[in-house]
Amino acid sequence: MSDVAITPKAPSTWRIVLAAILDFFTIFWVAGLAVAWLFGGMTDNGFSLDGGPAFLCFALMVAYFVVFNKYLGGTIWKRILKAKRTDR
Predict the structure, then answer these.
(1) Domain coverage including residue 76
(2) At 35, phi and psi to the nearest 5?
(3) pLDDT single digits (tens) 60-84
(4) Does a structural domain hold residue 2?
């Protein structure tokens, strides 16, 4: 038996960047549509948020990244693309 620890290979940079972009668009649309539906911001072309509902949408987006990365082991797209950094 060898005493050498095997370190997993770090994910490619393109996977990390792609996961971040897809996570941003996913949570933007999900949170935006949910907040617009709750507060009456739905339009024929999607949604439009101003003032408090826009701030709530932004807060949900920040909470998504913080909660998923810190407590749930990575965001949805990081898990799908296996882009979680292991060097930290």
Answers:
(1) 13-80
(2) -65, -40
(3) 999 999 999 999 989 999 999 988 7
(4) no
